[in-house]
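Ligand-bound model needed. 2-(butylsulfanyl)adenosine.
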Amino acid sequence: MCKIKKKIKDLQNIIIYYNYLYFILGKPIISDDRYDYLFNKLKFLENKYLKKININSPTQLVGSRIFQKSILKKHLTPMLSLNNVFNKIDFIKFYSKIIKYKNNNKNINFFCELKFDGIAVNLIYEYGVLKKAFTRGDGLIGEDVTKNIFFVQDVPYCLKGKHFPKIMEIRGEVLMSKKDFFKLNKKYLKFNNNVQFSSARNLASGTLRKKKINKLIKRKLFFICHGFELFNYFKNLDSYYKILMKIKNWGFNVNKNFIFSNSLNNIINFYLNIKNKRSKLKFDIDGIVIKVDSLKLRKKIGYVSKYPKWAIAFKFPSKQKTTKLLNVSFHVGRTGIITPVAHFKSVIISGAVIKKASIYNNNELKKLNLYVGDKLFISRAGDVIPKIIGKKNKQNYNILNKIKFPKKCPSCSYYLKISKDKINYYCTNSLLCIDQITKRLIHFFSKTSFKIKDLGPQVISQLVKKKNFRNPIDFFKLNLEILNSLHNVGKKTSKNILNSLNKFHTISLDKFIYSFGIKGVGQVSSMNLSKYFSSINNLINSTKQDFLKVPGIGKLIAKNLYIFFSKKKNKQIIYNLINKFKINILKNKKKYLNSIFLNKNILITGELKNFSRTEIKNKLEKLGSNVKNSFSKNIDLVIKGKNPGIKLIKSIQNNIKIIDENYLLKKLK
Ligand code: IVH
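Prediction:
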């Protein structure tokens, strides 16, 4: 019997070794047939001679050969985000705050590494065996990507070594190299409906979350570890750095570009050094991350809502590129506002292919004074949104090439009106303008409203143009014949649309309100209206005064709501949806939505890079804030731009929360 036990142990060990070669190193040394033979032999012996099979035996493990079901549904501990700084001064502020925690004059060590621009994932291991992989999601619950994670390199399915925590979480980033991204993106064009991905990150994210991974991409993603939760496993090691090195020995990939230091100068030099090296790195990064090394100290320093106070991302400034303006098109939004969009020769900024940028409004267009053929300077606001920073001025311009705002609506040729503040042109033909109708319906059937599978912009736009569909009710009468007559709509898509429409019977009141796209009524206001009125009947029968009582609803939005709900046609649509198409509207249980701007008195000081004063005022008011012109003790939040004035000093003196433009952008997103 002892002999048999030894044989089983030997077989287990050899298979663990083969697994390591295959899954960790990607270099198998035996054939699949031989592997299967050994594996089945082990299984046979274990079943015949062992009373209890060791959980670490390879026959008990998940992997491409055997999947074991797991009941885990979410992260065991929340996956937090990082606060950002974009300049030395703000970084020093962070550093100085941390240094205040010095105890007995002992230096505080920092671990500084790259900020990888990929997809954050959480790998859950039990006794050293991979059980689940989730994307970050909202930090609490992510998407289950366990199946696809097996195609990602450097995700060991079982770990090298002997003793592992009972359970642990390994965090890191799934990335694709820049080289593979450019190669694959070209190929992708052919088999992905001509859709190109705009960055390696997007391609990696799309791939990881796909039901079936394309074989071209299978081995092109890789994982870099930058965090863990070991539930006190290395109790005596109070160092992120030391534990990271242990984890590395288990088979994880830890990037070699890091420093471990207590000196401000060293950290700043590391930042400058990596900034210089950035373009030569194989994958995209967008800054460095500085983390307090001691885990005990981390606990003491603590957290603010979604990010730790003991770490910071020191981001690189957005890069700038020069390109040529090809033309400017004018788009009609669902509320009739016209937005100019510049189209230029494509450029790559921070790993993404950019070929157009919104110009927002007439003011911006005037400021830029554009001519076709202009040399433009392009960057990405907050490293995300494409933006024209300026252009190279020439001596002679051909007046024929000048870009001017059109006088008539590009969709319905109705004469455009200009807003009182002269910033926006808009088309008032809202009932007949085809672009407005289409955009309203796209909004109505979008993910955040009446989510109907496969009923996307292309299908909606054809139904409006070719089949005279004008309101949501028309869509609930859709049939196969109509769908079959459309261009580029396959059988499967048609089936999905009809199935989804037939099955659509419930929607929450906030989504119902939001779906109508009433001017100024965003998701936050919709939730608050839903909480306040509880039923659609109450909403329909309300006065302007009633609407004004809802948090975040100002005079203008109250007026828009009143006009919308008093129109006979709109009431008809609502009653038809409820009575004829049996749409059941559910009350919202949630509390008033918690936008950081809701019900806040906000003061802006200094110039903002990405918004004019009116733009940001409108945006914030839509989110339920009151934007004030002068300082008072009632101010809750201050937004600080470039060259702030006395308002900033007063706010500091009065301990009022101050945020900068990058944080603002992040929150608005
Ligand atoms: S640590 C509690 N380290 O950046 C600290 N995150 O903007 C949590 N990221 O969702 C993260 N490189 O996915 C950490 N070296 C690094 C990182 C990193 C990239 C990602 C991470 C997070 C996001 C926050």
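The domain at 434-504 is CATH 1.10.150.20 (DNA polymerase; domain 1).
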